[in-house]
Specification:
2 copies of one chain form a homodimer. With 220 residues, chain A is mainly α. Helices cover 72% and strands 0% of the residues of chain A. Chain A folds into 2 domains: 50 residues, Arc Repressor Mutant, subunit A; 154 residues, Tetracycline Repressor, domain 2. Chain A binds a DNA duplex (30 and 30 nucleotides) through helix 1 and helix 3.
Amino acid sequence: MAETRSVDTRERILDTAERLFTANGFDGTSMRQITGAAEVNLASVNYHFGSKEALMREVFRRRLAWLNTERLRVLDEMESKAGDKPLKPSQIVEGFFGTLLSMAQDESRGGVTFLRLLGRTLTDPADFIRTFLADEYQEVVERYKSALFKALPDVPRAEIAWRFHFMLGATSYAIAGTDALRLVTDWGVEDEDAIDRLDRLPQRLMSFLLGGLRAPLPKF
Amino acid sequence: MAETRSVDTRERILDTAERLFTANGFDGTSMRQITGAAEVNLASVNYHFGSKEALMREVFRRRLAWLNTERLRVLDEMESKAGDKPLKPSQIVEGFFGTLLSMAQDESRGGVTFLRLLGRTLTDPADFIRTFLADEYQEVVERYKSALFKALPDVPRAEIAWRFHFMLGATSYAIAGTDALRLVTDWGVEDEDAIDRLDRLPQRLMSFLLGGLRAPLPKF
DNA sequence: CTAAAATTCAAACGAACGTATGAATTATTG
DNA sequence: CAATAATTCATACGTTCGTTTGAATTTTAG
């Protein structure tokens, strides 16, 4: 049962690291915190992953592997159904961001914990993180951007690329859900809203994103 | 000239810390890096500010003091001109986010460096940062949110608050400008766009934000 | 069952961290 | 000019960090 035990250790480390990185950041989380909370030996991280940075990369890799595959699958399916016709922008946005948001409800894919980690990490200054994330994301982003170019042939490509960027920002931030500005919690609104914050977020966000994507072009 | 020299030291530390925090994050920047680059003694940070955390707070405080004042001034002016009539949503958005973006061109207010720092810090997990930023932002956000409630009486307040949140995210992310996904740099577009990225960003962003704010309400 | 491979473990490493101290230096004040 | 206060400085403290090591243990394979 060595392999089983080993897999247990690996996964326990990954789950714990994911949780602590989300709560305290990469620099703010020590190997001793991780191994302590995961109830494994301190040296096991270096044994299984090689280094703390490599652990961080693996935390992302196992989740993004699925996300990338799923996003490409959804896009492939939409494009094959559409034949030669361009896709509707709403389809594309839904395919890209809806896939992401669906992870929130799936605990086996990291749930909200991973989504928060991803949202925060996209603005992390550390080089190794930026490089890694860029590599992981690049192909899928290219594909979706191309789909948007095709779907909106009259909109300048630079404009589309920027709006894609803005959409990513709005989504990351909504997901990271910092409450930093107490925007959400302190508005003195009916109680029901406190409950369905997360279930209704996808629809709210999607409306906002599509509104932004379709906004009149700026005049320079 | 003791006081002059002292002010020099203080400001040199603040400027250097602002730059290094932006480049490497709070945890990723050591006191020795800061004092070394600023060419001041290691102990001077603790002498002038008390601690590393207090230095971080002061880095923000000196910039946000101006930003808060300016945002309130703009809002007050718009409201007094409008009298009893509600403001136009575009005015409010422009007042809030335009003020922020104007800092990018003003090196004496921190320029793009501070804006990037702010954008990144809004999703920072560290408690003392979240608490501090929430306190600094709260009053102004309340005022602008109230203005939006009044400007859009038919839109549910929860929806407005959420969209404010989304707008903040899009803006933060656009400003943080991580290029994490190489979205902006690698789109193979005419050369001119590489140059005017920053001058045109305000107009591009404002169009997007207003499009999102005015989007049709989601159906649940 | 036994040898080899994989994994766990306790312990230690040097380096870097934020902070504190007290003397030395510089500036202010009367 | 003398005293007093403010600031700078070199140095050190104790802690925590990521990583390494080699022995102990467990699992796998012949």
